[in-house]
Amino acid sequence: MSKLRFRISMSLDGFVAGPEQSVASPLGKGGERLHAWAFALAAFRAHLGLEGGEVNESTPVVEEFFAHVGATVMGRNMFGGHPGPWDAERPWTGWWGLNPPFHHPVFVLTHHRRAPLEMKGGTTFTFVTEGIERALELARRAAGGKDISLGGGAKAAQQYLAAGLVDEMELSLVPTLLGAGERLFDGVGNDLHGLTLMRTVATPRVVHLKFERR
Amino acid sequence: MSKLRFRISMSLDGFVAGPEQSVASPLGKGGERLHAWAFALAAFRAHLGLEGGEVNESTPVVEEFFAHVGATVMGRNMFGGHPGPWDAERPWTGWWGLNPPFHHPVFVLTHHRRAPLEMKGGTTFTFVTEGIERALELARRAAGGKDISLGGGAKAAQQYLAAGLVDEMELSLVPTLLGAGERLFDGVGNDLHGLTLMRTVATPRVVHLKFERR
């Protein structure tokens, strides 16, 4: 069966976004420091349709993560456009422009019913109001035997982790502190719900910890 | 100059002790899971005067940490015996019995004046009421050119980290969650105060991240 796979960058003090998140600053104050290693990387930039970048020890980690993914599930904050109901005049279509970098079906957890959005390049956004298990079921069906990427943000990840539904987690630990912001593991409980550390790739800028369900 | 070196075990969600800490349970609920890797290790057990244990990839990390240390600084919670003033009838002498495993001068941060305690095996406890910098100064003088170990707990570590006085930090990251308890980096700010990740030793049970001041 296709796996639910999750990757995220986290500070040493457990934050995946800085404080004072807003539409203008979705990563929060200092949050960009968590992603500097990725934006420097050719493999990550290519995924976003950007040129340039380097090849280093993190390259295989990123390539491995993006391979064999057939669908994405994400939370409402990751998709954006909140607060408030959808604006019928100028509907929000996500952060990624007209040709989002997914190129496969994306299922957005939300409390607001909305018709699916077909974007350029093969990405469709389907809005799911029936909860995380239903979104995963729809994604699994759409993934065509490939895996499902859990795209974040923290709240969606917490729900899937706490429910024991995550099969793989690639935690990219950035050796810095944010001091405040949104924590990845808040409310997840006192164990990893069946996930076990299986592989570490250490670089000076980021340490990649890969967990798998045994 | 002799370095101030700090080692501690931390969960993936940033806790160095579990919830509900007490004299009967100084590590808090679940806190023993942070130290299982160390107690399994011959090099660590020998330091506590215990027999047995294994040799594995963590052995050199522990040996390196315990080598070349001439004095220890620790916080009041690490020494224990609080709350309340010292009991003159049955004075608290720490958690470690009559022959503590330090075998060198130990400086305890406290608000309570108390005469030094000379223990068996070369350990002396000196109580310092004039703050972290004074304790470090006394430890440096007593260390005889060797390094100083910052013995914890979290609150003492936070003060030395925030003041930029830690020269080396060996963070042993245990791939589990505690969900609640005492966090290492609370109040330390939004950077590592000059510390840089210099070396990683990864094992399935623990990932050792060594930070040094550049």
Textual characterization of the structure:
The structure is a homodimer of 214-residue chains. In chain A, the strands form 2 sheets. Chain A has a 9-stranded mixed sheet with strand order 5-6-4-3-7-1-8-11-10, sandwiched between helices. In chain A, strands 2-9 form a two-stranded antiparallel ribbon. The first copy, chain A, is globular and about 45 Å long. Chain A has a single domain (4-16, 29-83, 99-213), classed as Dihydrofolate Reductase, subunit A (3-Layer(aba) Sandwich), CATH 3.40.430.10. Chain A has 6 helices and 11 strands. The mean pLDDT of chain A is 93. The first copy, chain A, is α/β, with parallel strands linked by helices and 214 residues long. The two termini of chain A are 14 Å apart.
* Average of per-residue pLDDT values of chain A: 93
Following the backbone from N to C, one meets helices and strands of chain A in this order, namely EEHHHEHEEEHEHEEEE
Q: What structural class is derived from the secondary structure elements of chain A? A: alpha/beta
What percentage of amino acids of chain A are in beta strands? 25-35%
Query: What's the alpha carbon Rg of chain A, rounded to whole Å?
Result: 17 Å
Quaternary structure type: homodimer
Major beta-sheet overview of chain A = 9 strands, mixed
